[in-house]
Design goal:
By secondary structure, the protein is mostly helical. It folds into three domains: about 80 residues; about 375 residues, no CATH class; about 140 residues, Rossmann fold (3-Layer(aba) Sandwich). It contains 24 helices and five strands. Strands 2-1-3-5-4 form a five-stranded mixed sheet, with helices on one face. A hairpin with a 3-residue loop joins strand 4 and strand 5. The radius of gyration is 28 Å and the shape is globular. The N terminus is likely disordered. Keywords: Membrane, Transmembrane, Transmembrane helix. InterPro entries: Integrin_alpha_C_CS.
Length: about 625
């Protein structure tokens, strides 16, 4: 039997019931971000085509495409009335869209210098099933197989090519990075709005759009670093979570050396601040830091002992160069944006972005101080630790003025900017609550300036835009002629051959060609073969090394005698070659191999020549 409730009888004097107004914010958010996403993607594609064809305004189109999506996304994420699930959807959309610039840059294969090395390493694992194989392009990456084994596994399970498997891993990692920052901010502030804004601010760092989206171990490791910190803060609240933090720490250690060291440094900052603040569970942070130290030290000593010599004392050289800048009125320093084709407004925002960061961090510290924030509660030590981490950004920004410090400075920003994001986000929310519309306009303006400026400071235009081949560029040095020469050598002579080459030829021969190139070092100066003057003998010690180590072929790129490398490197950083704006070689130095008895030409395509060594004639 079915029971039906009686229909209530409405009194004549009863007021008609007013239906609550439906919240359509989710619909408006979806519509606005969909339209903005399509428009932004079209503008980004147009920017790449304009750069490739050498006409139009690629920079303006690029930033129009980025800002037309990111600014509405920032509005919806920071809006007080936005529901938590909608914020999550906005962050996922933001993370996905922010991967688009790098995806459009090279969707079909490796392009950046290190991508060739990681692509080769992943293919070797897929085909041979062996970890820890030496990589001839970047000699230490074989000792950190986290990314390569994951990509090879995805490729094997899905049937994707190695490159497309890598894209799947990297896109997922990029989304998890944004969500990880939000979760970390939630751990500290317990406020979803602050968490979303912190994730967006972190996306302003100079590595976010291009460097930490490339096929490189940093791109996966930086995500593991953020989630490991989530594990640290949760373990401080509940020590039972310490196992998760240590597991994520181990995953970071086996993936990338610098990120492992960065994680250890961050853990030490947290432990020290908790100790100074007399937090009752500071011992947990110390235990995790000691565990991270043991894992990192053990791995570097027993599994990856070459890492220390590979990294080199960059900081020491950078400090010496920084001191020399004052001794010679700055002549030994770097000139920022020297010969850059970036427009003037992009260069100006690069400097304005640093000023904005300094002002905002200082304002956040004053805000904490005025609220007596450092004197109460359990969350304050965590915020102070992030303030210390964020403050590390500014000394590194100064080191970018030195040739040796620039690379390390750029790589450090992905770590220190997390601290900036986590301490500035509460200030942004407070400003929005106090001044609403005016604060929103001001903050979105600052957001745009910092996004443009940091990207301009972190990546030069050749990394960001396609264009004609440029000799000595880490992104445009690959030409069909070099690729064809590498494929010819592999097809006719086989793979895994030990060859002598310059940096750019070695990159292609070592990846697509499957060979084992060497580009020179202090202990194995193969560049002296090229530097030897016609009619002068090459060092007998070097010939003995080449013969004893079974090097079989020499690759000569004749462009070395006509052009200057864009990045001022022919072989490696410490090469004894003058970099004075003129080619470092003469045609005679490169043509001498045609007449040497122990070099036999077997291939010549115009710019690229390949010689076979015959050391037997020297005996």
């Amino acid at each position: 039997m079915t029971l039906i409730a009686p229909t209530p009888v409405r009194s004549e004097t009863t007021e008609p019931r007013v239906e609550p107004k439906r919240d359509r914010s989710s619909l408006w958010c979806a519509l606005s971000l969909t339209v903005a996403g399509v428009a932004g993607a079209v503008a980004l594609v147009a920017a790449d085509r304009a750069a490739e064809w050498g006409r139009g305004r690629p920079f303006e189109l690029f930033w129009l495409g980025m800002l037309v999506f990111t600014l509405p996304a920032a509005y919806w994420a920071g809006r007080r009335a936005t529901a938590s699930r909608l914020r999550l959807a906005v962050l996922i959309a933001y993370a996905s869209f922010s991967y688009l610039p790098k995806l459009l840059r090279n969707p079909t294969g490796p392009l950046y210098h290190d991508e060739f090395a990681h692509w080769r390493q992943s293919r070797q694992i897929l085909f041979d099933g062996r970890l820890f194989e030496t990589n001839p392009i970047v000699r230490v990456i074989g000792d950190f197989p986290g990314l390569h084994s994951l990509v090879a596994s995805v490729s094997s399970l899905t049937g994707f090519s190695v490159w497309h498997a890598a894209l799947a891993v990297l896109i997922a990692s990029h989304v998890l990075l944004v969500l990880g920052v939000a979760v970390l901010a939630q751990e500290i502030w317990r406020d979803g709005r602050i968490a979303a804004i912190a994730a967006l601010i972190y996306g302003l760092n100079s590595s976010f759009l291009f460097f930490d989206t490339q096929f490189g171990y940093e791109s996966l490791a930086i995500t593991l670093w953020v989630w490991a910190l989530v594990g640290v803060f949760r373990a401080v609240r509940s020590p039972r979570m310490a196992g998760l933090a240590l597991l994520l720490t181990l995953a970071t250690v086996v993936t990338h050396h610098l990120t492992a060291l960065g994680l250890l440094a961050t853990m030490l900052i947290i432990a020290v601040v908790l100790t100074v603040s007399r937090h009752p569970r500071a011992w947990v942070a110390w235990g995790l830091a000691l565990g991270a130290a043991a894992m990192t030290t053990g791995w570097l000593l027993w599994v990856a002992p070459k890492t220390a010599s590979y990294l080199d004392p960059y900081l020491g050289r950078a400090l010496n160069q920084f001191a020399a800048m004052f001794a010679d009125n700055g002549e030994s320093g770097r000139t920022l944006f020297k010969q850059s084709i970036a427009p003037w407004w992009e260069q100006k925002t690069a400097f304005a972005a640093q000023i904005c960061a300094l002002v905002l961090v200082a304002a956040a510290a004053v805000n904490f101080w005025k609220q007596g924030f450092f004197k109460r509660g359990e969350r304050e030590p965590a915020a102070l630790a992030m303030l210390v981490l964020g403050a590390c950004y500014f000394p590194a920004a100064v080191l970018i003025l030195t040739p040796s410090g620039a690379e390390g400075a750029r790589r450090s920003w992905a770590f220190s900017y997390l601290g900036i994001a986590l301490v500035v986000a509460p200030l942004a929310v407070r400003l929005l609550d106090r001044w609403a519309a005016k604060a929103a306009v001001a903050l979105l303006t600052v957001f745009a300036i910092v996004l443009v400026g940091n990207t301009a400071a972190g990546m030069n235009p050749s990394y960001r835009f396609p264009g004609p081949p440029v000799y000595g560029s880490d992104t445009r040095a690959m030409t069909p002629e070099v690729v064809a020469a590498s494929q010819w050598l592999r097809a006719t002579q086989g793979r895994d051959l030990r060859i002598v080459a310059d940096r750019y030829s070695g990159l292609i021969f070592g990846s697509f060609g499957g060979q084992e190139p060497v580009t020179g070092s202090v202990t194995f100066p193969t560049y002296d073969v090229y530097l030897a003057q016609p009619g002068k003998p090459v060092s007998p010690q070097l010939i003995a090394q080449l013969s004893g180590w079974r090097f079989s072929y020499l690759v000569v790129d004749r462009r070395m005698a006509r052009e200057v490398p864009e990045i001022q490197i022919y072989f490696e950083n410490n090469e004894p070659i003058a970099h004075n704006g003129k080619p470092g070689f003469t045609i005679g130095q490169l043509a001498k191999f045609d007449r040497m008895p122990w070099t036999i030409k077997i291939y010549d395509s115009g710019d690229i020549a390949i010689y076979r060594f015959d050391f037997s004639v020297l005996k």
